[in-house]
Structures are given as structure tokens and as C-alpha cells.
Amino acid sequence: MMHIYTQDAQGQFVRTEAIPACGWIQLQDPRPEELHQVASATGLPFAFFEDALRPEERPRVERQGQACLVLLHEPCRDERVGAIDEDVKYRSLPLGVIVAGDLIVTVSRQVSVISPDFFQRHGLRLAPGRQAGNVMALVEGIAQAFGGVMQDIDADIASAEAELARSYRNRELYALLYLNESLIYMTTALKNMMHVMNRIRHDDYLPLGPDEAAMFEVAQAELDQAHAVTHISQLNLNNVMDAYGNIIQNNVSHIVKFLTAVTIVLSIPTLIASIYGMNVPLPYQEEPGAFTAIVVGMVVISGLVAWIFQKKRYF
């Protein structure tokens, strides 16, 4: 899907069919013919588009001629995953931002958080000399999107913890494992984007004037904050997984101990009844109160053993 935008005098985004000299081309899960159309019309390296559509590509910055590729990662939710214990629900996927003169192109396989509403909320302009600042605003918006996904992950962790507190199954622990894998995706993506920002600062991939430099500092601060929150959540989740792994093991051990104690208590009357059920002469078998005495004896002995187990907290 390809959308081409320019901006009018009132700051409103206007869809157009022709590729302008100053504007924004949005490519989301594009068809091959759309990629070739944009590449041939703008002269941008086709490899930039291919790299942005590879899920395994890491964030980086690269320049070829007048074109600069800032390859970022943005968080996404896998809508095919229903429950959090089925598979990894949260991942990060590449978002390519290509800057060539006054033209900016965004390329992604997934539906991106970058939209015309995003540009207008941040007061961005598709104007000559403004594209470096627009890239910084995109980085800031993506960092904020990571923060929003982290809130969802924290809520899922709390939900899984509530189930684990009374669970003796592994299913809830799998939920934490998948959430931990999501945090690994987030932490790695944010760390790599921080390296990208450092390269932009030191290697002059984008011209940063005073306004763009201020936006750069804000974007970098957002990335640092998102990375710190994600890293802390990952450490906390690792501790929670270790603790609840032991809790599940203790729950299972308690059940086994309880069933063993019940089996021992029930085996006492079974043993006595088996002895007096033998088809041989037995003591007191002719006594009229023998049956009652045997039953009372079984109850007393079983009760005594159960009381001992209760004192030892086997029940």
C-alpha cells in the first residue's frame, strides 16, 4: 500500500498521486511494483527498500549519495496470538526512514505507528530543510510507542502472576517465558536505536541545526527512558520467573505429600481388613463383639496416624 502526501498552507496533509519534490511517501506492506515505481521516480537505492522489509534487519544508519537510510524498529502486536501463553505476542519490526533532499519515505512491512495524524500531533512540516527534524520526531514517537507497549506487557505480567500464585501447572510459566522473549525484542531494538542516534550525532548523517539538535536531545532522552524501563522490567521478570518456578515446584511437592499421607492413613484399615478377611482361623473370631472392636480399632489407629501427620503439617 502506497500513500503520497504533501502539506498545504494550513498544515493539513493532502493525498496526491504524483511524487513531489517535497513531501512524504508512506509504504506499508508495499507491492513490488510500488517499490520499483518509487525507486525509479526518486532515484533512491532499491536496496534501501529491500532492507527495510526484512524482519531480521537491525537498526542502523547508512548513506548512499544524497540518500540516507535510518533503519529503526517499532513495536507491534501479533494479532494472530490470542492468549499470552500461546506464543510471543509483542515483537519489534523494522521501519525504514529514507531521507533524500526534501523528500522523506517510510517503509514498513506492518501497519506503522507513523501516520498523518502523528505528523500533525507533533506539529511537523513537510517543508524544505525540515526532514532531519521530522526524523528526530519519528524517533521520539517510536520511543513513546515502546512505552505504550511496555504498559501492556506489564499488565500481562501482572495477570500471569495472579494465576501463578495459585498454580501448579507450567502453562502460566510459559506465559512469562513468552513475555520475557518480547522484552528481549524490545530491549535489543531500543539499544540498537540508541547506537543509531549516536552515529547520527557524531558522523553527520543528517544536517542538524539548532532546532533539529534540540529535537535530537528530546528523541534520545525518550529512547534512553524507554530502554531503562524495558531493561528494569526484564530484570524484574527474570526474578519473578525464578520465584514462581520454585512456587510451582513447592505446590506440586505439597500435593504429592498430601496424597502420600492420605494413602498411608487409608492403608491401615485396608491392612487390618485384609488380615481378618483371610479364610483361616483367627483370634476372637467367635466373639460376638469382634467385628465392632476391629472397626473401632481401625478408626482409632487411622485417626492417631492422621493426627500425627497433622501435627507435622503433612495435611
From TrEMBL:
InterPro entries in the record: CorA-like, CorA_cytoplasmic_dom, CorA_TM1_TM2, MgTranspt_CorA/ZnTranspt_ZntB
Pfam family for this entry, one: CorA
Keywords tagged on the record: Membrane, Transmembrane, Transmembrane helix
Transmembrane parts of this sequence: 258-278, 290-309
GO molecular-function terms, A-Z: metal ion transmembrane transporter activity
Localization annotation: Membrane
GO cellular component: membrane
Lineage: superkingdom: Bacteria
Membrane topology: Multi-pass membrane protein
Entries under CDD domains matching the protein: EcCorA_ZntB-like_u2
Family: Belongs to the CorA metal ion transporter (MIT) (TC 1.A.35) family.
Protein name: Magnesium transporter
Organism: Kerstersia gyiorum
